[in-house]
Amino acid sequence: MSATLRGLLAWMRPYAGRVALAVLLGAATVGSGMALLGVAAWLISAAALGPSVAELQVAIVGVRFFGIARGVLRYLERYVSHQTTFKLLAELRVWFYWTIEPLAPAGLLDYRSGDLLSRAVADIETLEQFFLRAVAPPAVALLTAVGVVAFMAGYDLRLAAVLVLFLLLGGGLAPWLMRALARAAGGRLVELRTKLNTLLVDAVQGMADLLAYGQSDRVERQVKGLGRDQAAVEGRMAWLDGLQTGLTTLFTHLGAWAVLALAIPLVSGGQIEGVVLATLALVATASFEAIGPLPAAAQYVEKSLAAARRIFEFENMAPAARDPSKPRLPSSRHDLVVDGVTFRYQPDAPPALQGVSFELREGGRTAIVGPSGAGKTTLVNLLLRFWDPQAGTITIGGVDIRQLSQSDLRRMMSVVSQQTYLFSASIRENLLIARPEASQAEVEAAADEAQVREFIESLPDSYETWVGEHGLRLSGGERQRLALARALLKDASILVLDEPTANLDAVTERQVLRAIEGLARKRTTLTITHRLVGLEGMDEIVVLAGGRAVERGRLEELLARDGYFRKMKQVQEQALAEVVE
After folding, report:
1. Which of 409, 410, 473, 509 could be a cystine partner for 468, CB 3.0 to 4.6 Å?
2. Pure H helices in 154-214
3. What is the pTM of this model?
4. For 526, left (φ over 0), alpha (ψ -120 to 50), or beta?
5. How do residues 408-421 score in pLDDT, each as one tens digit?
C-alpha cells in the first residue's frame, strides 16, 4: 500500500463508524433489491399455478416491504455517506490551509497562486469521489457476495460456484483492467487541470497588462490548447466509462445465464422446485448491482491518488522558521537590536545581508536606506521571522526573537509594506483585520489619525464601500493611508514601515508622511526606504549597499560627509530636477 493511500485511509479513521454504517446501508439496499426481484419472481411463478391468495399473502407483503425498504435504505445510505464525505473534505481543506500557512512565504516561493488554488479546491474536490465511490463499494460488494453465495449454496454448490466466478470477473478483472487503463489518464487529467487553473488565475489577475501589451490572444491560444488537451483526456476517461459499463453488463448477463443453465437440469431432476427457477436467475442478476461501481472506483482511485499526492506534498515540508518548544514571554521593553546578521536565501546564493548591526531604542526612530536590492526588505522578513538568519541575532527587549512564539512576535509589530494587500471586501472589514474586536469609534479614530477618514466618509457607502480585488477601486495613496490606519488600529509597540511612500506622487507622499508622523509617536519605529525624504526626525540612518551597512548617522551628519548617502541624495535630487524641467 502506497504512503499516499495510507494517508487517505488515515483521514477516514475518525469516521470509521459512519463509514461502516454507510457500508451496511449500501449492502442492505442491494440486498433489498435482490429480495424484491426474488420474491416478485417467486410470487409470479407461484401465482401461475393457481393457489389460494392466503398462500401468496406473505410474498405479497414481502414485495411491498422490500420495495419500500430499498428506497428508504438508498436514501439513508446516500445521506450518511455524503454527510461523512463532506465533513471529511471540510476538515481536509482546513488542514491544507494550516499546513501551508506556516510555510509562507519562504516555503511557497516556488509555487504559483493558481497551482495552490487548484490543490485547495479542485484536488480536494476530486477526493470526494475516492471517499464516496472507491472505499465503500468494495466493502458493499464483499458483503453482498457473501450473502448471495450463501443463498445459492442453499440450493446447490454449483450455482454458488458459477456465480462466484462471474462476480470475480465483474468485480475483480474489470476493475483491474480499468485501473491499468486509467492510470496514465487519471494523472494526466489532474496535471492538465492544474495547468489550466494556474493559467486562468494568472491571466485574470494580469488582464490589464495582457491587454495593454497585446498578449491576450496568446493567452487565449494557450487556454484553448490546454482545454483541448484536457477534453481529449476526459474523452478517454469517458471511453473507459463506457467500456466498464459494457463489461459489467456482459458479466451480469453471462452470470445470470450460467446460473439459469445450471438450475434448469436441477429443476428437471426434481432437486429444485420449478417456482424458484426465475428467483435464482433474477437474484443472480440483482447481485451484480453491488459490483457495478467497482470498475469506476478503480478509475477514481488513480485520479484521487494523483490529487492526494499534490495535497500531501506539503505535509512533511519544514517551515523556514519554527516556534521554540518552550517559548519565552515577550519583554515589557521594546528596544530592537540587530547584531551581526547575515542571511542567504539559498546556500549557494550571495548573502542578501552580511554582518548588519544597528540598535533602535524604545520609542526611537531609525531609518534603513539604500538602493533596490540592498537587503532592506530582507531585513523586514527576518524581523517577522519569515526566515531566520544564518548568523547573528535580533533581539527585542533583550530577548532573541527566535525564543519567542511567532504569534507573540508579530503581535508586537505593525507593518506597512510598499504593496499593501487589500482584500475584496469593505473598507471596514479591511481595517478590522488588524483588530477584529475594535469598535466603530476606534476605527474612525485610526482613520482620522491616518488622514483618510475624510476620504472614507465622502464615499456613498462610507466604511461599507467595497474596495474591489486587491483594492483596485482605490488609488495608490488611498491604499497606503488605509494601510497606515490598519497599522494604527492594531496599536502595536513596534512600527515597521517598508517603503511606505514608494510609487506615490509628491503630493500624496507628503500626505502619507504626515500620517506617518502621527502614527510613529510613542512607538519604536523602523522606516525602510530608498526615497530619501522625511528623514529629518530620525535618531539614526543606516545606509545599506550590497547587503552591508556602509554608513550610519543622523541626516545632517551623513550629508556633511562625502559618502554613499550624500551621493544617493544628489542622484535623487538631480533626477527630480530633470523630471520637473
Report:
1. 473
2. 157-168, 174-205, 207-212
3. 0.73
4. beta
5. 888 888 888 777 78
